Automatic annotation (TrEMBL):
Source taxon at top rank: Bacteria
Protein name: N-acetylneuraminate synthase family protein
Pfam families the record matches: NeuB
SUPFAM superfamilies, per database record: Aldolase
Domain (PseI/NeuA/B-like) ranges: 45-281
Gene3D superfamilies: Aldolase class I
Source organism of the structure: Kineosporia mesophila
Signal peptide: none
């Protein structure tokens, strides 16, 4: 499984964009469930991602009766729509064909990619058969669901595999199932919000050397520093949750970026890309005058 540090890593094409080393960082705004079941909020978040310069927006697609653990289904939950079972809440926030068609049309008008992490096989079929999504994402929680991964692989689309809450042995099995040809992997730690000491960003290098595929970063921290450091360490894609307002009701809002944070993230990623350069030591034109003025010898 060790690709070796010197192996050239081939980029993966996602919807006409190359994702890999020496390519622009592919920035994914994870809407997830932060639309709270409201397509108007989803569209506002798509606008925010587009204006910030993100490449893609991402959703989560579930078939609630399959993906909700049996012992959770009847648990009562206070929601903005009243007290309901966890299963009913899952249905309440799930988008179906009508909403995804609206999203699909909206994104194509803006020239934005959209895709989702399907959490069960019927959700893979739903996304593959009804929409021409550019890629599939494996959520960290699904790394060991090899039936789900096989369904994604069989679509022939590229797959983005997140690796939070997973051991290298579990990731090995996922990679054996998915193959490496159209695979992008994401380093992730699935703590919400993630403290800095659990970021372990050098894992980006570990994964790159072990699997020889482009490695990105899926972040759940507060703030921007850790995502920006991931880019400096070579992450080829960055995914962050976004929200209209961190105080909104729902589990993912508090560890999400608000519009201004997202704008700063993309702005700073583009500056870092430029600043990383090609590693060839050279004297820049702009250094010549200071050189003439300051260097005494040679
Ligand atoms: C939970 C998800 O991703 P990650 O594991 O990267 O946070 C997801 O994509 O649905």
């Amino acid at each position: 499984m060790t690709a070796g540090p010197s192996k050239t890593i081939a980029p993966v094409e996602i919807g006409g964009k190359l994702v890999g080393p020496d390519q622009p960082v592919y920035v994914i705004a994870e809407i997830g469930l932060n639309h709270n079941g409201d397509v108007a909020i989803a569209k506002q978040l798509i606008d925010i991602a587009h204006e910030a310069g993100c490449d893609a927006v991402k959703f989560q697609k579930r078939t609630p009766e399959i993906s909700t653990p049996a012992d959770m289904r009847d648990v009562q939950r206070e929601t903005p729509w009243g007290t309901m079972s966890y299963l009913d809440y899952r249905y309440r926030v799930e988008f179906e064909e009508e909403q995804y068609t609206e999203i699909d049309n909206y994104c194509s008008k803006l020239g934005m990619h959209w895709f989702a992490s399907p959490w069960d096989v019927p959700s893979v079929e739903f996304l593959a058969n009804r929409f021409d999504v550019v890629t599939f994402k494996v959520a960290s929680a699904s790394v060991t669901d090899l039936e789900l991964l096989t369904a994604m692989k069989n679509t022939g689309k590229p797959v983005i595999l997140s690796t939070g809450m997973s051991t290298l042995e579990e990731i090995d099995k996922a990679v054996e199932t998915l193959g490496t040809e159209k695979l992008v992997m994401m380093h992730a730690t699935s703590t919400y919000p993630m403290p800095a000491h659990e970021a372990n960003l050098r894992t980006i290098n570990t994964l790159r050397e072990r699997y020889g595929v482009p490695i990105g970063y899926s972040g759940h921290e507060r703030g921007l520093q850790i995502s920006l450091a991931a880019v400096a360490l070579g992450a080829v894609t960055v995914e962050r949750h976004i929200t209209l307002d961190r105080t909104m009701w729902g589990s993912d809002h508090s560890a999400s970026l608000e519009p201004e944070g997202l704008r700063h993230l993309v702005r700073d990623i583009r500056i870092i890309e430029e600043a990383l350069g090609d590693g060839v030591k050279r004297v820049f034109e702009g250094e010549l005058k200071p050189k003439a003025r300051l260097r005494r010898v040679g």
